[in-house]
Amino acid sequence: MSLYFPGLVFGINIVLLISLIVLAVIIGLLIALYFVGRKMQKKNDEVMKEMQASAQMVSALIIDKKRMRLKDAGFPAIVYEQTPKYARRAKVAVVKAKIGPQVRSLMCDEKVFDLIPVKKEAKLKLSGIYIMDVKGVRGPIVKDVKKKKGLFSRFKKEK
After folding, report:
1. What is the pTM of this model?
2. What angle do CA 95, 139, 134 make, to 5 degrees?
3. Which tens digits make up the pLDDT trace of 58-73?
4. Whole-angstrom distance, CA of residue 65 vs CA of residue 55
């Protein structure tokens, strides 16, 4: 004669069983994300090597720089169409620059975006519409450091 205890399945508490199943699923997802991330990193490295190989230095007058949505940036339609759907709504770093006689919208990395001087001339390392690096034409580029105002200094009157 066997006894039935509610809450026990195969001699294991149900709460413990559910916890083990959830833990196994989470571990499985983490392993899958690790391998997908490695694959995407390799793909990104290959693309960056190709972009480095095809990059060229140009002199440009930087007109403006902003972070805006891809659709509002003024890029050609094919750029928007080739962008994955999950990335279309994200804001990207956009630089308007005069290269030769024409004004162009360019995209750049966040690290480079902070270094680009506004209303100044700079040498840009371009690969298509993507800015890979920036150098000053007349000396090094000085990064503008904006100090945040403290809580009390906001309320003080400026003279």
Report:
1. 0.65
2. 30
3. 999 999 999 998 888 8
4. 21
